[in-house]
Specification:
The protein is an all-alpha fold. About 70% of the residues lie in helices and about 0% in strands.
């Protein structure tokens, strides 16, 4: 869909380091026009406030929130669910939802921020996915560049929503099953993709039934919206059980303990664990105007004060974070 670009521009696009390892998935149409010699960047107009917010916010999500919740409850419970109670299992599942979001969105935020410091704009990759009201909405907010890739290179070539309803459901299932398999050659990934495909088909069927009865596709009543968000998040967490589990046996042991282990003590459900889960999910409900206001205040500071503020944030992150370097989850996919 693009006219050929000079070989040097293409080489810069292929080698541009911020997006090489795990995303966001940057297409030629996103970056090549920005690399073109006709597109000059002015170093005096770099969006430093937004770049700093993305880089340091992403670093906090990864180093502090993701690393802590992983070592505090996620890894121990998934390693041996039979030794843990129902509350510990549910917080481990919620904790993994926080861990993978903070890990991956933290990485892509830093990648987008680094590119912004160099004068390049990457596409958005996360948009408060745990506030979604349906699985279709979730995939519009989670790993957005992968969702578009799956749509354009799998779903649409398969036929998309053209044809009968059952053909469309087939295309959704094939796309999500292959999307699961893309993450790794394991049946648990296929099960994760299948759950999301089944959930999307079910959601589409229910929306069509509501339209046939003369109702809106989704109710916008406050209680209905709250229920939609709660139910969607719990279903996404069910998928995360299979995504994180080392085997089907491990996944079903988690689900079994979730039902049968509520009479046991829960020493791993500590206040810091609960707080991390609440912060990891709750911050996604913070209005965008708040982050815009923070960036505006930072941008008005003198350079010396900006440096001092960033140094203070970095000190907090390194103090609260674990020793060593924690690998990113998505590096293995």
């Amino acid at each position: 869909e693009l006219e050929p670009y000079p070989w040097l521009d293409v080489a810069v696009f292929v080698c541009f380091f911020p997006h090489l390892v795990a995303g966001p998935i940057v297409r030629g149409s996103d970056l090549l026009p920005q690399i073109s010699r006709s597109h000059r960047r002015d170093p005096r107009h770099i969006d430093l406030p937004r770049a700093s917010y993305l880089i340091f916010g992403g670093l906090f999500k990864k180093v502090v929130l993701s690393s802590y919740i992983s070592s505090a409850i996620v890894d121990p419970v998934f390693a041996n669910p039979g030794l843990h109670s129902g509350p510990e299992v549910i917080f481990a599942v919620w904790g993994y939802a926080v861990q993978i979001y903070c890990d991956f969105s933290g990485y892509t935020d830093m990648a987008i921020g680094c590119a912004l410091l160099l004068g390049f704009r990457f596409p958005e990759n996360f948009n408060s996915p745990y506030t979604s009201r349906s699985l279709q909405d979730f995939w519009r907010r989670w790993h957005i560049t992968l969702s578009f890739w799956l749509r354009d290179y799998l779903y649409i070539p398969l036929g998309g929503n053209k044809g009968s309803r059952w053909v469309m459901y087939r295309n959704i299932m094939i796309t999500m099953l292959l999307g699961g398999l893309w993450h790794g050659a394991g049946w648990t990934y296929v099960a994760w993709g299948g759950l999301h495909g089944l959930g999307q088909c079910t959601g589409h069927f229910r929306r069509q039934r509501r339209k046939a009865r003369g109702l809106p596709a989704q109710s916008d009543a406050p209680l209905a919206v709250a229920w939609q968000r709660f139910a969607t998040f719990q279903y996404v967490c069910l998928g995360w059980v299979f995504f994180r589990a080392t085997s089907f046996g491990n996944a079903f042991a988690m689900l079994d303990r979730l039902v049968s282990g509520w009479s046991l003590p829960s020493p791993d459900v500590t206040f810091p664990v609960v707080l991390t889960v609440v912060v990891g999910i709750g911050t996604q409900y913070v209005p965008e105007q708040v982050s815009a206001r923070i960036q505006d205040v930072f941008g008005r500071l003198r350079p010396v004060l900006q440096g001092a503020a960033l140094a203070a944030v970095l000190l907090v992150i390194t103090t609260m974070g674990p020793p060593g370097v924690a690998p990113f989850i998505y590096f293995k996919f």
